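Notes from the pairing session

We agreed to fold both candidates in a single pass and log them together. This is the raw record for the first candidate, unedited. Please don't reformat it; downstream parsing expects exactly this layout.

Candidate A
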Amino acid sequence: MSSPRLEVEYADPTPLQARIDTHRKYSEKPDDPGTDVLAAIELTGTEHLADIGCGDARFLANLAARGHHGPLVGIDTSPAMVAAAAAIPGVQAVLAYAEQIPFDDNTFDVVTARHMLYHVPDPRAALAEFRRTTRPGGAVTVVVNHPHTCPRTAELIAAHAGSYGITTTEAFTATVDSDSLPAMMIDTFGTVRIHRSDNALVFDAAAPLIRFAEALFGFHGVTPDHPQRQAILTDMSEDIEDWFAHHPGQSWRDPKGYIVATAAT
């Protein structure tokens, strides 16, 4: 089950869009996990595919635009994200948890779970559901971030949130990452193929870094309705602007990365 904090974070797709845009525009190297997923699963276009934690469903929209004519299913815990999936012609949108997928055994040819398993309280239960609902001879592909992705930005947000009494217990804590996932996949599926991507975000100005940091607020307990949200944003923005003012010609670089883990069923 997802936490109430997570459900609040994904009630509005705007922060997600800001994070996606940031990774597209400010990555040190090209950043395209969707392409990496497609390379891992090698679709023919006929597969019955479920994308678990589908978010705003752009992955499914891309598949549909590419001519995929097999059934496509988007599953998410956020009504806003399910609505986004439902708006895509040909996509079946389902409100459900990854640990309780409401489909029969051996339903799907392919299951993808991109950047979502670390939001699940019991990732092993979710992996078991991925296996249960995927037919023999199918594939399950999971994408998770490296531990401590974008640590500089995370530390900055945490420091400013903490100055207003928001504790680390209110922040998002990943249940799985690129270090722990391979062993979990092996336990569930027997074997796993790993594609690793190492990268960084690089900012040459304050404004895009501020926008990205604000899009991460929810993961640090700074909810949209928090009474001190604007004060935290103002203080943090001044801190970021001060950093660039005192480091002329320098960039703010924050390491990141992910793995694409694929198992046959």
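Candidate B (folded immediately after A)
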Amino acid sequence: MKLLISNDDGISALGIRTLANCLAEAGHDVSVVCPDRERSATGHGLTLHQPIRAEIVEGIFHPAVKAWACDGTPSDCVKLALWALLDTPPDLVLSGINQGANLGTEILYSGTVSAAMEGLIEGIPSIALSLISHTSKDFQPAAKFAKILVDQLAQRPLPDLMLLNVNIPAVRWEEIAGVTLTRQGVRRYIDVFDKRVDPRGKTYYWLTGEVIEDVEPSTGLNLLQNVPLDVHIVRKNYISITPLQYNLTYADGLDKLSDWEFNFS
């Protein structure tokens, strides 16, 4: 398959190198276009008010991998690849392997998911891959599963255009309990701004955050109550796969608001 790989951890990240090399060694046609530095938690931002530059990168990846480092956001990278750098569209867009989970409401901020979502917006099925640890450097189990998933999609393409958000436990391959289809959960944070003073005496703030709970979504999704939540299943060493789409319409909301009336007289 022809694959485009991006990320938000940057060109030097071990996760993207492990993923790209694994898939190239398996015989896939792999191109990498990713940020030239870490661009985590950038969401789906695009660069509109300055030029975007992309430089060919050599010596980092498998010799068969074509790679560019871009000074834009993860979404910029995928859009630039599809419209300017690649000769023909890829069969799949992959993003990752991210250093850290992208679970629940975290996907709204995630540059990893946003890069994959940009592929989806352009009509290409996409996969976001995350290792649920900020410290583990063993990306091989995640890359091994990515290869299995890509090979399966080559044989059985997705029935509809969608993004698969995949979170892999940071354990040895033998310790992975299995693979489970999940729905998006909710992760709440205590957002803390650490107030500091720089050497020139000017105040600045550093955003930190702490997860305080994983909770059940409170509205909608009534038909999915029997589908496990992504935030819960990974604790049991299962790989979580959550199908996503870019249409954010709240279907239950349309029904609940259908009796609204507005008087313009």
